[in-house]
Amino acid sequence: MNGARLWTIARLELTQRVRTVAWYVLLGIFALLLIGVTLLSFLAFGGWGTGGAGVFSAVVYVTLLLVLLVSPTLSGNSINGDRDAATLAPLQVTLATTGEILLGKFLAACITGLAFAAVAVPFLVIATLAGGVNGWAVVTSLAVLVVEVGIVAAIGVAISGILARPLFSVAVTYLIVAALSVGSVIGFGLVSTAAGSEFTSKNRSAEYTSNGEIVCKDGGHDCYGDTDQMVCGEWDTYTYRVPRPDRVWWLLSSNPFVILADATPTSFDRHGNPDDLFGWIKTAVRGAQSAPELQSTWDECDPRYLDGTEYRSGPTPEEIIATTVPSWFVGLGVQVVLAVLLLWWAWTRTRTPARTLPPGTRIA
Fold first, then answer.
1. Which DSSP symbol is given to 181?
2. Alpha-carbon 357 to chain mean position
């Protein structure tokens, strides 16, 4: 592996990608989008001095979203596009190896993806200066963002080496990214519903007159709270199916947005609530690990109902996160393995001399 040849290939790829005006227009549109997101986030999270963490998380999420939307277009035709343009074969007859060609194009795709993160830097600095941002959250979230940029770039470059047609490879890259980001959520919802369980609800109320007065055993109407004197109705029992997210919560582990939230350290207010989007998404995903209650009882004639001891609120987000297990490293590992396997496949399809080529493949 030669560093000079690797950088030459990456530089040539970058020159080809960024020399058009459309590239700079796209970055400008992204900057305008971040201005709107930043302003709205300050309004949503409390403004200067209190909402920095929320604004920071919103900007990082928007950056990740745009990378997932744009990167497949920039990297999904990097190899087969050169083959169609008859510029790949001259490169293959130089001293550059197949691995250097793949890694050079991967490096260029990473740099183009990180260009969006560079545009977001001023807005991230503003959010950090606003206060309330955890330093470890900044470091971790940006590290995960960079890794996700690399994974998407690797998938796009690999698919462009595996498939012969540029348009088809870009579409397949989008499908893989959509399967990780959107398909995992859809699959989680469908499978958790299909694997649901029966929920039983039992309810009993006190007897009331047509005037809304409670019926008492002594014939009066002032015994509410005295469970020995209250006249109670019959029990009503209802059964219905409820989803079981605790059985399939792992389907979300490879989602890029979930990985970003689950890996980022969370700060809480005095009520145990997160102060940014990372924490709220982490709470929702971690909460799916707990099995739901499959039976509930509501009894107006029960003293525990009257004093509120039996019907207390659930755990706080801080308690949910503290009592569940992280899964971000599993999902990130799945993404890395997928990217490496696809790159290896692309290497076998791109290496020279080639034993077989897809029909209609242009050599030079």
1. I
2. 37
The predicted model scores a pTM of: 0.84
Helices and strands in the chain, H and E counts: 15, 3
76 — phi, psi (to 5°)?
Answer: -75, -5
Cα separation, 95 vs 5, whole angstroms: 8
Tokens of 294: 């499959």
pLDDT in tens, 244-253: 998 899 999 9
Alpha carbon distance 172, 174 (integer Å): 5
**Which element (helix H / strand E) includes 204?**
strand 197-204
Residues 6 or more apart whose CB falls under 8 angstroms from that of 3 comprise none
Give which of 322, 312, 290 is closest to 192, Cα–Cα: 290
Sign (positive or negative) of CA dihedral 85, 90, 96, 98: positive
Residues 274-333 have pLDDT tens digits of 888 899 999 999 999 988 888 888 888 877 766 555 555 678 888 899 889 999 999 999
How crowded is residue 264: how many other Cβ atoms within 10 Å of its Cβ? 27
**Helix, strand, coil in percent for the chain, rounding step 5:** 60, 10, 30
Measured in degrees and rounded to the nearest 5, phi and psi for residue 87 equal -110, -5
